[in-house]
Amino acid sequence: MVATGLVSDGLALSRLVAFCAISDSRDLEYCAKILYGAEDPNAFSWNVAIRGFAESERPSEAFVLYRRMLRNGGSKPDNYTYPLLLKTCANLSVNRLGRGILGHVVKLGFHGDLFVRNAAIHMFVSWGEVGKAREVFDGSPVRDLVSWNSLINGYVRSGLAGYALRVYREMEAEGVMPDEVTMIGMVSSCAQLEDLKLGREFHQMIEGNGLSLTVPLANALMDMYIKCGDLEQAQKIFDNMTTRTFVSYTTMVVGYARFGFLDMARELFDGMPQKDVVPWNALIGGYVQANRSREALTLFHEMQSSKTRPDEVTMVTCLSACSQLGALEVGIWIHNYVEKHKLSLNVALGTALLDMYAKCGDIPRALSVFLEMPTKNSFTWTALICGLAHHGYALDAISFFREMIGNGLKPDEVTFLGVLSACCHGGLVEAGRNFFSQMSSEFNLFPRLKHYSCMVDLLGRAGLLDEAVKIIESMPIKADAGVWGPLFFACRVHRNVLLGQKVALELLKLDPHDSGTYVLLANMYGEANMWEESRK
């Protein structure tokens, strides 16, 4: 081309640059060399080279080309240049550079172009700045289906399903017909909202409008039905799919595991052509949820043998299995694995580690994890408080409870159950009364049966039987055996036979065939030398 002079021909140069940039035989180094050596490449040549780098393993070099284009002084960027650059900014999450390029867009007068605006909406959505995406959308003089889909799916990705549905209704009002991408957004919104009725309506709309049930749309429908509790419909969609992807298999494995059909989940899992960490996590989590923790840990060892790298979710699930089994040694091994592979000790993983150590009785290690955690939430504090209470560290549990409140975190019912248990184990009657009162007066939490059981146990151990009876009489819910039982034991310990008789009758109303109640009542009569009543 140099010998024949074609290198100075804009069309011939463009074709050569395009071949070097985007063909199967691409050579980006040679492409850039040609471009930099040309006298005045046209905008098409620059754009196709920018696209080539943007789609390569060196996408950031697209910006180097853009700067050379600006300095070249010949051809200027056009409305095809900026969508390429904005898409690259979205993929690389380079926020500052993206905003700078938007400044160029405004300066050069391309801010009204539909393709540029759609690329800007996509970029903001990719960054999670859906509010800014909405501003660009609202300021667009012209919108097409891509504009609507980008905004709708942006809201879905941000977990704002309600907003996505509102945008869809606006789109309907403007007479814009949805496509398969729109329906993926709508079905995913229904999944987030767990709105089965609305999800079925969109499914009917897909069939009624003759939209193609693409694999991504079928996957979204399966996910929606599973999250909304209709596993049977998800199964039908899966069975009717002529082409299934990795996501299709994973979605069904997650569904079977969630609903407790672990044998079916395992069968489908074993038949998957490929697996990443997600289906492994789903199946391990299913075993833990079904209290089959030994099988969960066995599956975790299989996962390691398969060379699949566990993530934080895997570790959290396996630690829950260790907590159920009291498997401290396995829990310590998992902790060492987390440290060795430098997994982030986020709130979920840190809380799971702490909870495992607490439930296995290793309070020093639980405290050590708690102190190491950079961020803690109310669940973290609750796990520590309950662990301390369960193992008899009553004063420490109360101290951490007060510190938690002092840090502005709100306790929940489980937190209060932990601190009331601490008071019960420590015989701290006045503190227990105060905490029980705080539940409703300060935190708007209403005591449940277990909270009343703790209070009755606390008062009963202290011999305050009349106060315990008053607590039961004031309950807005019917007392069960978990509430009457501690009072019955307290009556025996404190030799209050008269009250013990009344409590025994209440227990026998709940379960007339409970032999334990008869035995304890007989023993109580015997200890009071009431032999005739004991024989009865």
Description:
The protein is mainly α and 536 residues long. It is 72% helix and 0% strand. It is built from 32 helices and no strands. Helix 3 packs parallel to helix 5 (81-92) and helix 26 packs antiparallel against helix 27 (449-461). The chain is elongated, with a radius of gyration of 33 Å. The model is unreliable at 1-6 (pLDDT under 50).
Distance between the termini: 115 Å
Which class do the helix and strand fractions yield? mainly alpha
Assembly status: single chain
Number of helices: 32
Question: What would you call the shape?
Answer: elongated
Q: Can you give the mean pLDDT?
A: 90
Mind summarizing the main beta sheet?
A: none
- What percentage of amino acids are in beta strands? under 5%
Give the strand tally.
0
Keywords:
536 residues; mainly alpha; 0% strand
List the helices and strands and how they pair.
Layout lengths: L9 H13 L5 H10 L5 H12 L6 H12 L8 H12 L2 H13 L6 H13 L3 H9 L6 H13 L3 H13 L6 H14 L2 H13 L6 H13 L3 H10 L5 H13 L3 H9 L6 H13 L3 H13 L6 H14 L2 H13 L6 H13 L3 H10 L5 H13 L3 H13 L6 H14 L2 H13 L7 H13 L3 H9 L7 H13 L3 H14 L4 H13 L3 H5 L1
Helix pairs in contact: 1-2, 1-3, 2-3, 3-4, 3-5, 5-6, 5-7, 7-8, 7-9, 8-9, 9-10, 9-11, 10-11, 11-12, 11-13, 13-14, 13-15, 14-15, 15-16, 15-17, 16-17, 17-18, 17-19, 18-19, 19-20, 19-21, 21-22, 21-23, 22-23, 23-24, 23-25, 24-25, 25-26, 25-27, 26-27, 27-28, 27-29, 28-29, 29-30, 30-31
Short description:
The protein has helices spanning 10-22, 28-37, 43-54, 61-72, 81-92, 95-107, 114-126, 130-138, 145-157, 161-173, 180-193, 196-208, 215-227, 231-240, 246-258, 262-270, 277-289, 293-305, 312-325, 328-340, 347-359, 363-372, 378-390, 394-406, 413-426, 429-441, 449-461, 465-473, 481-493, 497-510, 515-527, 531-535. The longest helix has 14 residues, at 180-193.
